[in-house]
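Researcher: Here's the sequence for the chain we discussed earlier.
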Amino acid sequence: MDTNDLLRKALDFQRAWVETGSEVTRTSYGAIIRTPRYPLIHMANLAWVGHLPGGGAGEVLADLDEAFDGTEVRHRNVIFEDARAAFDQQEAFATLGFRPLADLAMAQLGLPACIANPDLDLREVGSGAPEDDYRRLRMRLFEGVGYGPEEARQLYAVARERGAALGQRDFVGYFQGAPAGTVSLQTRRGFGFIQDVATMPEFRNRGVARTMLFLASKRALAAQCQYTLLFTDLFDSPQAMYRTLGYFPVGEIRTFLKVEAPGGP
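Model: Thanks. This is the structure I predict for it:
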């Protein structure tokens, strides 16, 4: 399978994630996605652009303004499937006060190339891991990156709601019996999609994330998934770890974000 096909699969997972449980209005270029009960969440209220329309960026922004006029949504979020088209529009968005973001889609064939730490046990939420442990870790993560209490509540709620609808399995990694990290996995049509890989600060540099990825990939393989896919920040350090595990880049997805009032993940 070539990288374009793998990127398409990763985009399919991501688009299903943002559309699930949302009000979706199809457009000539993609869709406007609204989730009014989660107004602070960028990935719940946005424009998804499959290709640039004839009216350019202005057409997309006009649709966003119309969709969210009079609502509690105070941000404008535009996701481009086509990274090159997004790059061409970067100056136009920057002039309007938007911040450019980029995620790298990566794929792994089979199991990651690592030795699992035997002190790490991966347990699924709702069976081996209590919901409280998972929620506590996720809330700590949100707090650590600066989200306020209501932002964190909405982010956790929308993730659990969408995950349940999509058959996502959420896990807690226990290091020597203590909750140390999280990872989530979806499997569909022979592909696995990994999200929410996080290690608590006090457990870093002990192979927690690597082992969680290895064990999550084993579960994907057991579900007859040949490839696992994920997105990571194009400019952040986690992608270096993924590369050492055997993940390889298959493409990018670009985002332009403008927050008109404080807050919002």
